[in-house]
Amino acid sequence: MKILVTGGTGYIGSHTVVELQQKGFDVLIADDLSNSFPETVDNIADITGIKPLFEKVDLSDRTATRILFEKYSDIVAVIHFAASKAVGESVKKPLLYYRNNLNSLINVLEMMEKKNIPNIVFSSSCTVYGQPDVLPVSETAPLKKAFSPYGNTKKICEDIIDDTVAASDIQAIKLRYFNPIGAHDSALIGEYPQGVPNNLIPYITQTAAGIRQCVSIYGDDYNTPDGTGVRDYIHVVDLAKAHVIAVERMLGGKCKSPSEVFNLGTGRGYSVLEIIKSFEKVNNIKVNYKIVARREGDIEKVWADTSFANKELGWKAERDLDNMMLTSWQWELKRKK
Ligand code: WQD
Known about the structure:
The chain is α/β, with parallel strands linked by helices.
């Protein structure tokens, strides 16, 4: 019995493969390596002692996806991470994002129907909420117009899943991530952005490592305690563990509806300045920063109502901000070596 993890050499995917293997699951990774590295398969094996099966596949290619599903006949569930995910890039190249993110999901769902694979866990994002009217934001909050084509592909993919579930025997669990950060305790896997980082944490760690000059804080005139943007940062290992629980829920027939959705956050928001100060304190290192103008498309503040995931999944984020800052830095130091 295999779990297919698409995008499994990526940041969240690789951490999820580790947790799946450590719970005894047999894992097959399919990834096009457009934003990750083949060495990650070996790094996972160094952590767990088990080398996952790996297939280099462009899942936006219908034929390649069919060939993958015909080669492996014992897939019982799919965790679908494979997608392009840079907010800024999606604004510049919307068609690349719509083609890749939508076609990949459609091709996977089509083969799941053909092969009678009834379980999919989908990687969604809190970006579907836009700037919520009420905080903390719960799963029942109205979804708003996405701030970017990337965010819109997540919303559309949730609809594609709901419509497919209604017309087939497939059941789905959609997981809406808040801001995943941190790295595995081994520092063998972590976030590995290509080029100049879009996200805050890799920019901080690269600045602390001397790779970047200075962190630009995008605006300090928001309606927040210190004026800088507030987000719900969650450790990637906590996020990975939730995916294993979701797979076990489906395999155990415990879902309460054919398509379920859960917020995966900590329920606590931190500002950009709080993050930088925490990183400096925990790692005893100075981080240069300057305040600049707001970034186009940024929302002001968001943090999760996690009560539904806590109750229904029996899952709760356990790692604190200090650990997120510590493991992020340990990972950067390991990469520097
Ligand atoms: C966090 C905060 C910025 C960089 C995006 C996607 C989301 C998910 C995570 C994929 C904000 C500020 C950032 C910098 C800064 N992606 N910031 N200087 O935009 O909350 O979420 O990434 O799944 O779907 O929307 O994450 O890390 O870019 O920004 O001041 O150099 O840090 O303004 O307040 P974001 P982020």
